[in-house]
Write a structure and sequence with these properties.
By secondary structure, the protein is of the alpha/beta class. It has a single domain (2-113), classed as Rossmann fold. The chain has helices at residues 10-24, 59-67, 87-101, and strands spanning 2-7, 32-34, 41-45, 48-52, 74-82, 108-113. Strands 2-3-4-1-5-6 form a six-stranded mixed beta sheet. The longest helix has 15 residues, at 10-24.
């Protein structure tokens, strides 16, 4: 079963890799960049993939075109995004993308920054 973490940009990818390195002893080079969709970049390590959304606008695309077709192999999906100037609007966009994707909501959790306290 695969685990996906969807992040907003390359800085977030580096942060996740750093956490994996310091907490799990996974080297940065252990993540292999997957060839695939030009809209996003995917970095894989065993059954874990970090997807750089390259901005918030690609969330629905990734959920419907990359993750949904593999739904039977997907255990969890995490989404980390910046709330920018409007936490509520950002949260609604994420909720709508999850609903529209038709991926069971029990497989997906999201975390919005800078609030840094609401995990759903």
């Amino acid at each position: 079963m695969r685990h996906y973490l969807l992040v907003e940009g390359v800085t977030d990818v580096s942060l996740v890799k750093y956490i994996c390195h310091t907490r799990l002893n996974i080297n940065f080079s252990d993540f292999k960049k997957k060839k695939g969709a030009a809209k996003v970049d995917t970095y894989e390590y065993k059954d874990f993939a970090i997807i750089d959304l390259k901005g918030q606008n690609n969330l629905l695309y990734v959920l419907t075109d990359i993750i949904l077709p593999e739904q039977q192999k997907v255990k969890t999906v995490g989404i980390i995004q910046d709330a920018d100037d409007d936490f509520n609007a950002s949260e609604q966009l994420i909720k709508q993308a999850i609903l529209s994707s038709k991926i069971p909501s029990g497989k997906i959790q999201y975390f919005l920054t800078p609030n840094n306290q609401d995990i759903h």
